[in-house]
Amino acid sequence: MSVMAKAVRAALFGSVMSLVSFGASAADYTLSVNTALSPQDPLYKGLEEFKANVEKRSAGKMSVRLFPASQLGKDEDLLEQARAGAPVAVVVDGGRLAVFVKEFGVLGAPYVAQGYGGIRKVVTSPMFEEWVQKLRKSSGHQVLSFNWWQGERHMLTNKPVKVPADLNGVRVRTPGAPVWMETIRAMGATPTPLPWSEVYTAMQQQVIDGAEAQDPAIYGSRLYEVAKYLTKTGHINLITGIVTSAAWFDGLPKDMQTLLREESLKAGDSASKATENSLADFEKQMKDKGMQIVEIDVTPFRTATAPVYEKLGYGDLQKQVETLLKQ
């Protein structure tokens, strides 16, 4: 690592530590969890359950502090702080981890699995646990669990979309991870990376023409106010996980390590089921506010995005995932 990179990491570490230390509890251990989610999101309710259960089961020895709306900063910055040993965690998708362990990127590949049941089978498998161990060794991150399902992502536009050709020239906001960028490009649009917090204003000011996201996030950010159509492409099945510092985790007593992973898995299941149960209501509320919810035949999009796997070197891994899902 260069001198400059070390200096930047040290500065970020200091700024994050000052935030997580403010108001710290008297518990023996404290974990600060950062998420882009709003407190109204079903997954955030799951994080509150995780916090309550960890603190109760540990008899107050472990404190969990929650920071919604990315109050501690960007995901990438928090991941750097975790690498440096800070007692922080971030709710993050596989694309953000693929820069450390490539296999994680396949979780965000197009149409990789259907619904929560399908993707959960992948992220609780022995194959996935091998990726978790590779991540520890390569980047110093520890996955607590990766079963936090946010829903299938759909296309948001101000014009009707039925086939990939309808997205030609349409600037669509998406996260900057390669698998997301290539998926949106394959769907016919022009991928445009932007922080999630800037999407509403960017659409309002026509800096971008559209976005893609899951129902709870769309509703929570009031994007129904700036987009006329929600087209149910379901192109990415958004599964996320709680990722923390391996060095901090390894410094915990074994019972605390077990507690964190078990309670994260339990709360992830609870939150994901709540997400499943909320989708129809979110869509009804957005429809009531004037947004058109459009069901389409996604076959053209499946066909258009199929080459993404080979293009990014995920061809063999796709076959392994398909085999796993058939078991």
TrEMBL record:
Residues 1-26 form the signal peptide. Keywords: Plasmid, Signal. GO terms for cellular component: outer membrane-bounded periplasmic space. InterPro entries: DctP_fam, TRAP_DctP, TRAP_DctP_sf. Pfam families: DctP. One of its GO terms (biological process) is transmembrane transport. NCBIfam families: dctP (TIGR00787), TRAP_S1 (NF037995). This is C4-dicarboxylate ABC transporter. It comes from Azospirillum humicireducens.
